[in-house]
Amino acid sequence: MSFLSSVVVHIPSWSVFCQALIALLVPILVTRMYKKLHSFVGNGRNLETNKTIQSSVSTPEVMPFSGDYQTDLQAIYSRIGSNSDLHARELPIKKLNARGTLFCVDGMQNERVLNMRIMEFLMFEATDGLLAGTVKSEELLPFNNLSKVSDIDIFNRSVLFGHAGLLIEGIPHGLLIEFPNGTNRSITEPVSEALIRGPRIGFSEVLSENTSLLRRQGFSDQLEMKSYRVGTRLQKDLVLAYMKDIVNPDLLQEVQTRVSNLNADFLADSGYIEQLIEDNYLSPFQQVQNTERPDRVINALLEGRIAILLDGTPFALIVPVTFSMLLQTPEDYYERWIPSSLLRMLRFGAAFVALMGPALYISLIAFHPGLIPTELALSIIETRQGVPFPALIEVLILEVSIEILREAGIRLPKPIGPAMGIVGGLIIGDAAVQAGIVSPFLVIVVAVTAISSFSIPTYSAGVTLRILRFIGMIFAAFLGMFGTILFFLLLCSHLTKLKSFGVPYLTPASPFRATDWKDLFFRAPLSLMKRRPAMLKTRNNKRK
Amino acid sequence: MFTRTDDKITTSQAAVFLTNTVLGAGILTMPRSITQEMRTPDSWLTILVGGFIVMLTILLMVKLSQQFPGQTVFQYAGRIAGRLPSLLLCLLLVVYFILVAGFEIRSLAEVTLFFLLEGTPIWAVIIPFIWAGTYLVLGGINSIARVFQIVFPITILVLLVSFGFSLRLFDFNNLRPVLGSGVLPVLHGLKSSVLVYTGSEVVMTLVAFMQHPQQAVKAMIGGIAIPFALYFLTIVFVIGGLSIDSVINSTWPTIDLIRSFEITGFFVERLEFPLMVIWLMQMFCNFCSFFFQASLGISQLFKFSVTPVIYGMVPVIFLAAMVPNSIQDVFALGDAIGSMGLALFLMLPVLLSFIWILRKKGLKQHV
Predict the structure, then answer these.
(1) Contact B88, B95 (CB under 8 A)
(2) What does pLDDT average to in each consecutive run of 10 residues of chain A (544 residues)?
(3) pLDDT per residue over A246-258, tens digit each?
(4) Contact A276/A45 with Cβ under 8 angstroms?
(5) DSSP symbol at A197
(6) What is the per-residue pLDDT across B233-246, written as a single tens digit (0 to 9) for each?
């Protein structure tokens, strides 16, 4: 009997059962929503299923050159002749007694070369050998970049893209004789990844220049570059670069599949590619690294990674990426190992502060002032006396204004930027304290947090931490220290689930790979780093 | 193969998994629970003896599991003892895991409410914690093991630093006399010292997940040696720092030890703050481990897919955590869990090995 009554005493009340029900329902609902969202967003990406779609798109009716000069010319004119920037120069080829037409677009060809060399050759020097053997005919033309096109549409597209096109009577295909040579930006120092010591070269917007920058890093016959055409409406060139004898073939296969399955009508920047090939697009963390630095790319290639370069953008992508890579800079390897290691650890510390600073402030001030030294707690509470808001609102006011300030600073013209920093940072911060909206201690916390997030070398990783910081603040505001720890654990759980092209995101910290720790928080002396990262399972493990 | 598709863990992950499963609430309460039984300062001896006993049992469990490569106890028990008896035994094990999970989370809530969040309703602590655990457990054993690998070094570092600072309170006389009342108290405390190793039953499922099961003995003994050493250090430092009288009277003696001194001029004057932080993270690991084992058990016993079982487990664990009405109840539940663990040990590995040997050697059956 007493046993029964003690059992009855311990049966929880109905409210506990209600809570249990809520505890059950919320995760189920959240998962439902997550899955819905996942499949909804995923539909637009078509990573696996679009092979058939693409092949049907990319094979429109082929329109071959007929071989009859007049018909072909008419066909070209009818398709692209209405463009006012298209120049078609009809030229008689004296020695052949044939006609030819040279097509080019304004501003894409060097006029002098066109006039002087090419036209002169065609008009006066080209011999009838050109027409004799139809197969070998193009070999007789003294042009370096010569290619034969048998489809009128492709010919048209290339001409409009900037190639110089040539149509000669008697040759049943179009000839592309010069590469586009439009105006380019000169090669400058990378803006988003400045270094004190190290190469000052950054990628530019021209793909061939970028690949040549990679080639010029050193002599090797193993650096391989594979070119792809991507985009369905406005096509662009994309290059995969990797070291043939190092890269893991399965990884290469995976990247190739994802790249060839890209489904978009136009890829404006490598950011498009990043978003279309990454593993988990609902994660706040980037799973592809972007960089403007050729030295960074070549180092990554030598570790067994793969680079993706797109025409029209100075940002190359590196896959696979791990979290620690986002906090490392190439300079770590250029400087001596002791300062590099210390700076690197400093950066990890800064990342932690950038993520957790305000959350820790809220939980310590609002929930557990007893955990910090008494005098400090007293002085903080004293300065907070006049502040009419709870800690969360106080932090939010200042954090949000700092974020606005930062966003404004990026968009402003260069000369105004610093001025606004002074107005925004110094004057508003000081005035906010004077007005009693925030406490001076908080200004310190927010400023340190902001500076810490500036010290993260990869801009996009910094943005991620900025977003997560606000989530951390909300956790802290509800559950104090407990909430902050919960936030940290959730973040860890998420990061351990995350993968970048099959490589766990937190390697080598977890899964633990002792050999890769030489290059994590610490940058071991170069003579000790004789092996490539184990996480990439390269073909050729030893650096030699 | 570049992308891993098998859900296996490495040897070091398995060791850390076991460590984090065993290292739970005990680290805060163990000095009191053992000393209460013994009333002599010899509890460190008890921990040593208990640890060796546990190691032997782990050895037995590993050896048994190695006979059935790739199978957890929930799968191979049926092959040894027949469907129905093994189902009952394994269900008992699952209930045990649920109770432990509930107990751990309840002690966590009690500590949090006492030290950090006074006045917060208890469900507000427990439910978010279970949800966070659900998120991790859904990722499978690999994610869990990886989180363990992150938390583990932090735990060890902070624990050792805290104990190192507590040396200033350490008085060797508190640990004397050795065996002043004879050997009997040591044997008396043995039961509660085996209790602190609650959770070593996971060995029977863990071996199945190992990439190299032939290294299981090494991994598991290594995995239990760490909590063994940490418990030993804890009890020596707590009793040496506080003396047995204050240990018996304090609810959370380890926290009391760390609270009782200040480091002036440091950012946190009392190390109780970092200790609480790592202990909460440790409890998360601990809880997730039992959560995972219980879900795994149900899904393998009844051939369910594991995801709905994990969701279904959420309210069950919540209710298990809410059953005790007071902190005395929580400790009573802890004792009951200890006895249950002992009984389960007798029933599962010992009985199963016995039947297995009987059938294999005695009856020459092919199992």
Answers:
(1) no
(2) 72 85 90 87 57 46 76 85 84 77 80 70 66 54 74 85 82 78 80 87 89 89 89 88 90 90 86 88 91 92 92 92 90 91 93 93 87 83 85 90 86 80 81 87 90 89 92 93 93 91 85 82 86 82 76
(3) 899 999 998 998 8
(4) yes
(5) S
(6) 888 888 888 888 88
**DSSP secondary-structure letter at B333?**
H
Cis preceding-peptide flag for A511 (omega within 30 of 0): yes
Cβ neighbours around A513 below 10 Å, total:
16
A353 by Cβ neighbours in 10 Å (0-12 / 13-18 / 19+) ranks as buried
Where do the structural domains in chain B lie, given as residue ranges?
A: 11-350
Contact residues for A218 (Cβ-Cβ < 8 A; gap 6+): A298
**Cβ–Cβ under 8 Å, residues B147 and B19:** no
Long-range own/partner contacts, residues A177-182 (CB < 8 A, 24 or more apart): A177/A118, A177/A141, A177/A143, A177/A145, A177/A146, A178/A104, A178/A109, A178/A113, A178/A114, A178/A118, A178/A143, A178/A145, A179/A145, A179/A208, A180/A108, A180/A109, A181/A108, A181/A109, A181/A110, A182/A107, A182/A108
Amino acid type, A485: I
pLDDT at B129: 93
Stretch B283-301: mean pLDDT: 91
What's the Cα-to-Cα distance from B146 to each of A324, A534, B9, B149, rounded to whole Å?
16, 17, 9, 5
Superfamily of domain B11-350: Amino acid/polyamine transporter I (1.20.1740.10)
* Three-state SS at B105: helix
Angstrom distance (rounded) from CA B128 to CA B86: 35
Neighbours of B136 (CB within 10 A): 26
The residue in chain A having the minimum alpha-carbon distance to the alpha carbon of residue B16 is A512
pLDDT digits (tens, 9 = 90+) for B162-194: 888 888 888 888 887 777 777 787 777 777 777
Q: Does B357 touch chain A (CB under 8 A)?
A: no
pLDDT score recorded for residue A47: 52
Instruction: Tell me whether residue A219 is exposed, middle or buried, using C-beta atoms within 10 angstroms of its C-beta: 0 to 12, 13 to 18, 19 or more.
Output: exposed
Question: H-type helices in B116-180, by residue range?
Answer: 122-137, 140-165
Query: What count of other Cβ atoms lies within 10 Å of the Cβ of residue A435?
Result: 9
Asked whether the beta carbons of residue A497 and residue B124 sit closer than 8 angstroms, the reply is no
Torsion angle (degrees, nearest 10) of CA B54, B55, B59, B60: -20
> Closest Cα of chain A to B146: distance in Å?
5
Q: Per the CB < 8 Å rule, is B132 touching A493?
A: yes
Q: What is the 3-state secondary structure (H, E, C) of A233-290?
A: CCCEEEEEEEECCCCCHHHHHHHHHHHHCCCCCCCCCHHHHHHHHCCCCCCCCCCCEE
- Distances in whole angstroms, Cα of residue B116 to Cα of each of A286, A481, B109, B262: 35, 7, 10, 18
CA torsion A159→A163→A168→A174, rounded to 10°?
-70
Unique residue bearing structure tokens 């916390």: A445
Residue B215, both tokens: 């290294």
Window 171-210 of B: residues touching A by CB (8 A cutoff) are none
Report whether B290 contacts B133 (CB < 8 A): no
**What residues of chain A, 254 to 293, have a C-beta less than 8 Å from chain B?**
254
B329 touches chain A (CB under 8 A): yes
- Best of A24, A26, A35 to mutate (most B CBs within 10 Å, chain B): A24
Task: List, as own/partner pairs, every contact residues A528-534 make where C-beta atoms lie below 8 angstroms and the sequence separation is at least 24, other chains included.
Answer: A532/A246, A532/A302, A532/A303, A532/A304, A533/A303, A533/A304, A533/A508, A534/A508
pLDDT in tens, B75-100: 888 888 888 888 888 888 899 999 98
How far apart, in whole angstroms, are the C-alpha atoms of residue A389 and residue A379? Answer: 18
Model pLDDT, residue A43: 62
- Number of C-beta neighbours around residue A444 at 10 A: 12
